[in-house]
Amino acid sequence: MIPVDLDGREPEAERRVVLFGREGCCLCDDARAVLMRVRAAHPFAFQERDINDDGGLLRTYLERIPVVTIDGVEAFELFVDEAELEQRLG
Fold first, then answer.
1. Number of structural domains the chain divides into
2. Cα dihedral angle (89, 81, 72, 41), rounded to 10 degrees?
3. Does any domain span residue 26?
4. For residue 85, which phi and psi values (nearest 5 degrees)?
5. What count of other Cβ atoms lies within 10 Å of the Cβ of residue 61?
6. Which among 18, 8, 82, 66 has a CA at the least distance from the CA of 44?
7. Backbone angles phi, psi at 52, to 5 degrees
8. Host H or E run for residue 32
9. 84, 50, 55, 54: which is closest to 70 by C-alpha?
10. Residue 38 maps to which CATH number?
């Protein structure tokens, strides 16, 4: 049986957002702040990955951080546009 909201609609699956960055990165701090503001209005599962902890991530993202993925798809790099994030999650 598929769960439904009280109005009869299927509930939306929770979105998964991942922030790839590293400690001491001020752009990563800015991206995190935007993500947390938007998360207050549009809840999503959040995970943060430090690229220094994984050689593959370090090679992939070193020159591009912060990188934000939504449900496994890259959505932002270097900065997060708050309005666009809200639209993508809305």
1. 1
2. -30
3. yes
4. -60, -45
5. 19
6. 18
7. -70, -15
8. helix 26-41
9. 84
10. 3.40.30.10
Mean pLDDT calculated for residue range 17-43 = 97
Cα 64 to Cα 72: distance, rounded to the nearest angstrom: 16
**Joined tokens for residue 13:** 């699956």
Using alpha carbons, select from 61, 57, 71, 70 the residue that is nearest to residue 27: 61
> How does pLDDT run across 66-86, given as a tens digit for each residue?
999 999 999 999 999 999 999
Tokens of 19: 């922030």
Per-chain mean pLDDT for the chain: 89
Burial of 40 (0-12, 13-18, 19+ CB in 10 A): exposed
Range of the domain at 32: 16-74+81-89
Phi, psi angle pair for 31, to nearest 5°: -65, -45
